[in-house]
Amino acid sequence: MSIEVLLVEDSPGDVRLTTEAFRDANRLIHLHVASDGVEAMAFLRHEGIHIDAPRPHFILLDLNLPKMDGREVLAQIKNDENLKTIPTIILTTSTAQEDIVQSYQLQANCYLSKPVQLDEFEAVVKSINDFWLTRAKLPEQR
Amino acid sequence: MSIEVLLVEDSPGDVRLTKEAFREANSRIHLHVASDGVEAMAFLRHEGIHIDAPRPDFILLDLNLPKMDGREVLAHIKNDESLKTIPTIILTTSSAEEDIVRSYQLHANCYLSKPVELNEFENVVKSINDFWLKRAKLTQRRLDE
């Protein structure tokens, strides 16, 4: 069975790094990319070209996004009775305490900072795979 | 700096195992134990004998607890503006889909099932340490807490 992951990220460089790091970490992962907040919500709500989009097992969400900010995407996910059970992991370059606190207030499942170093970035992706896919129990796909 | 963890667990055997596993995984962890849901909330709200209790860096919460159920403790934590930013990890023997979904609905940060095998239990504790303390960014405790 494949594992569906939604990556919400506007930087093409980071999308490529994340795709490659997940490919190395776990071949079962199928990574979907939304490059702004509006597209992320359309994907999650199966709107427009996303009518056949799968429900993701978890979401990796950047905070600074065009069109709709990551904080607003997070708030919408965690206030939606259907979407709120999808673990949503903040993955951002910010390490500001204000962003960390606000993300947990908005019910982010966890907050990770995106390292600049390539090998550290790969280690973070591996840790997401090791913890969230090997250890944590996620809701089953319907 | 020490890392304050609140374990909410009524089984003395599981408390002992968790303590030993954390001691091996990370000697900076200071594990506090509440053996029922009422005591957990008193600890978090600094009530009664818990007046000097530290704010935990994260919480490990069993679901089936005496006096106040783990689901109710979780709902209280995640509806409290001050407490909701503390990562709360469900650690329970249940692997029922209903419990998993309900916990995420109540905004548990994650759900782990407690293995019966001792070495598997140690691996789960080690994975909590590796991910939540080495990778995840947690909110800082204020100096006055």
Distance between the termini of chain A: 13 Å
Classify the oligomer.
homodimer
Number of helices of chain A: 5
* Shape verdict of chain A: globular
Write the layout of secondary structure elements.
Two copies of one chain form a homodimer.
Chain A: E1 3-8, H1 12-25, E2 29-34, H2 37-44, E3 58-61, H3 70-78, E4 88-92, H4 97-105, E5 110-113, H5 118-135
Parallel strand pairs in A: 1-2, 1-3, 3-4, 4-5
Helix pairs in contact in A: 1-5, 2-3
Walkthrough of the structure:
The radius of gyration of chain A is 14 Å and the shape is globular. In chain A, strands 2-1-3-4-5 form a 5-stranded parallel beta sheet, sandwiched between helices. The two termini of chain A are 13 Å apart. Chain A has helices at residues 12-25, 37-44, 70-78, 97-105, 118-135; strands at residues 3-8, 29-34, 58-61, 88-92, 110-113. The first copy, chain A, is an alpha/beta fold and 142 residues long. The mean pLDDT of chain A is 94. Chain A binds chain B through residues 78, 81, 84-87, 95, 97, 100-101, 104-105, 107, 109-113, 124, 127, 130-132, 134-140, and chain B through 78, 81, 84-87, 95, 97, 100-101, 104-105, 107, 109-113, 124, 127, 130-132, 134-140.
Summary of the model, kept short:
With 142 residues, chain A is an alpha/beta fold. Chain A has helices spanning 12-25, 37-44, 70-78, 97-105, 118-135, and strands at 3-8, 29-34, 58-61, 88-92, 110-113.
Question: Which key phrases capture this entry?
Answer:
homodimer, 142 residues, alpha/beta, 5 helices, 41% helix, 18% strand
